[in-house]
Specification:
Two copies of one chain form a homodimer. Chain A is α+β, with helices and mostly antiparallel strands and 112 residues long. Chain A is 70% helix and 12% strand. The first copy, chain A, is built from six helices and three strands. In chain A, strands 1-3-2 form a three-stranded antiparallel sheet. The radius of gyration of chain A is 19 Å and the shape is elongated. Chain A starts with a helix and ends with a helix. Chains A and B meet through α1, α2, α5 and α6 of A and α1, α2 and α5 of B. Chain A binds a DNA duplex (30 and 30 nucleotides) through residues 17, 33-35, 43-47, 49-51, 54, 65, 67-70.
DNA sequence: CAAATACTTAGGCATTGACCTAACTATTGT
DNA sequence: ACAATAGTTAGGTCAATGCCTAAGTATTTG
């Protein structure tokens, strides 16, 4: 139970940075090396590496080194876990029609 | 574009803490006051308040004060935005994996 | 083997985050 | 009015983040 929560924390934390989200997006279209991933960013390589480490610690990505090139790729599971958590919350509040209803009414009032 | 990204960052950041996720869970079953929300946690009130502020800044919740009681409630939109972002990523790599799958199947067929 | 390439590690600095205690303000109940 | 209640603000500690430059380690490549 506890470890699941910690894992979720790390995943959400990893997702909380635009650079890291961009890296995930990039990896969505296939594996890539450190320098390929770093290229779009105006940042010193060691700084960028830290972001990759955060991603790897969260297990959103994994990497393997072949020769002098380290290749990163996505690991789907943690992203799924995060999505599930959010989805569960959504289901919970959607059940409560009250709140949603009030919310929509307020939106209407704001638009008028 | 940029503001959307910043908003997402704040939402994911807010979600990266177990206390804050627990608060959201609590609010999923209805609005609640500061002290109701704080009660399960072994934490000084000012520390807990900071978490509520993080949640409010991320717009995952909003609050109104009536008399001396401040009541919090969920705001669904940011959670939906976060879920959408993840979902979009998932779709992206799922497509790719399908393509890879097709490719592998073709290879198999060629071998036959 | 020497030079270029692709990372890696070390160390430093500024900011932010998470927690605390103590003291304060604004209601409300008696 | 006074005490209790419900939050709030101020200020301090300590660790973690995000960025940097400089220097180091492996691997190719010429």
């Amino acid at each position: 139970m506890k470890s699941r929560s910690q894992a979720l924390s790390k995943v959400f934390y990893a997702l909380s940075d635009p650079t890291r989200r961009a890296v995930l997006k990039h990896l969505g279209s296939g594996p890539a090396s450190v320098s390929e991933l770093a290229q779009p960013f105006d940042m010193a390589l060691p700084s960028f590496l830290q972001h990759l480490q955060v991603l790897e610690i969260s297990k959103l990505v994994r990497s393997k080194k072949a020769g002098r090139i380290r290749t990163y790729q996505l690991t789907p599971d943690p992203l799924l876990a995060a999505e599930s958590w959010i989805s569960a919350q959504r289901t919970s509040w959607e059940k409560r029609l009250n709140q949603l209803d009030n919310y929509l009414k307020e939106m209407k009032e704001k638009k008028l």
